[in-house]
Structure formats: structure tokens, C-alpha cells
Design brief:
209 residues, 11 helices
Length: 209
């Protein structure tokens, strides 16, 4: 009975490349406020990183893995695009929709406590997506060559991300221990690099004054 239900949930899932193209189009015109860069490379990296790590460890069922990667591409779609839940479910099925809804902060970035609990008390598949999202956010911050942007980005995004970082790294993965622990470690390394770059840029700015 459970297998039949799972197949019904996943029957509308499309090819991974089609899923990315669908969400990329939805994010058309969406840019970063600091420099006008297009936003879609972020969702691409989140989905692709998930796909790579999931493939390495092979802990997820094939269909569930496809849904997790698809939701990685679409994780910001309900917050930042005109897509509706009905459209997402119609194209990809209810598991993808459930994961994207789980990734959505209904109250906005100014309210983080309930969102942190939503993610960290949610299903493991949801936390895998969030870890990939955080990994990319921290990595992008750490690798930014513009010192002024690093400082302004850090001031804007760290207060939003740090409560999630502090809480999610205490969570445990029982269904997917290898996949989850790899993503946790990756996120922690990226976090430390980002904080180091922000502090270094801030100290340099101070010496110039």
C-alpha cells in the first residue's frame, strides 16, 4: 500500500533537466540587489550539488532522489516567483510540492525562529535541501572577490542564516546518515570560510579609515 501511494505521489515528476528549465524560467528577471547578478545560478548549484552528493552515497530511493533534486531547483519558487503551489503540484507531484512548501518561509526573512523550527523538525529530505542551499549561500559569499560586497552581503544575510546554521548542525540523520553528514560538513566548512572572509574584509576596511 505504501509503495502504491509513493508511486502516485511521484508519477508527475519530469526529467531533471526539464525541472531546472522550468524553475529557471520562473526566476527570469530575479536578480541580487547588490550587483544585479541573475539569481538562477543559485538554484542550479543547489540542485546539482544535491544530485552529486546523493549519487555518491546512494542512500535515497531513485524516485525520491529525483524529487529532492527537483525541489532543490525550485526551493525558492514560492517565495520569489509567480508560480503557485497548484502549478508545481500539477507538473511535479505532491512530494516535490511538499518539499518546496517546507523550504518556504511564509513570514519572510525578518521572522526566522518559526522557519528554523519548520526546517529542523521536518523530514530529512527537507534538511538535505536546506543544507545544500546554505552551502551555496556561504560559498558564494566566501568566494566573492569584491570586498565591499562581502561586507554588505554579510551584514544583510548572516543575521538571517546564522540561526538556521546554529540549529541545523545539531540535527541528526537516521535515514540518510552519510548524505546528511557530508552536506553538514560541507556547510560548516563553507560557513567558516565565509565568516573568515567577512571578518578579514571588515578589518581591512577599518585600517583604511
Amino acid at each position: 500500500m505504501k509503495k502504491l501511494r509513493k508511486r502516485r505521489n511521484l508519477k508527475k515528476t519530469r526529467d531533471i533537466a526539464d525541472a531546472f528549465a522550468f524553475f529557471k524560467l520562473a526566476h527570469e528577471g530575479h536578480t541580487y540587489p547588490e550587483d544585479g547578478r541573475p539569481y538562477w545560478p543559485h538554484i542550479y548549484r543547489v540542485g546539482c550539488y544535491l544530485q552529486r552528493v546523493i549519487k555518491i552515497y546512494g542512500e535515497l530511493d531513485k524516485d525520491v532522489a529525483k524529487c529532492v533534486v527537483t525541489a532543490g531547483f525550485g526551493h525558492d519558487s514560492l517565495e520569489d516567483t509567480a508560480l503557485t503551489a497548484k502549478e508545481i503540484e500539477s507538473k511535479f507531484g505532491n512530494l516535490v510540492l511538499e518539499l518546496i512548501v517546507g523550504m518556504t518561509n511564509q513570514q519572510g526573512d525578518s521572522q526566522t525562529a518559526s522557519y528554523v523550527e519548520q526546517i529542523c523538525s521536518g523530514r530529512e529530505e527537507l534538511r538535505l535541501i536546506k543544507l545544500s542551499d546554505l552551502y551555496d549561500n556561504y560559498t558564494t559569499l566566501a568566494c566573492n572577490p569584491n570586498e565591499d560586497q562581502i561586507i554588505s552581503l554579510g551584514r544583510r544575510v548572516l543575521p538571517i542564516m546564522e540561526p538556521m546554521y546554529d540549529r541545523i548542525r545539531t540535527t541528526k540523520f537516521r535515514k540518510y546518515p552519510k548524505t546528511g553528514n557530508y552536506l553538514l560538513t560541507s556547510m560548516q566548512i563553507a560557513h567558516d570560510l565565509a565568516v573568515f572572509r567577512i571578518n578579514a574584509a571588515s578589518n581591512y576596511e577599518t585600517t583604511l579609515k
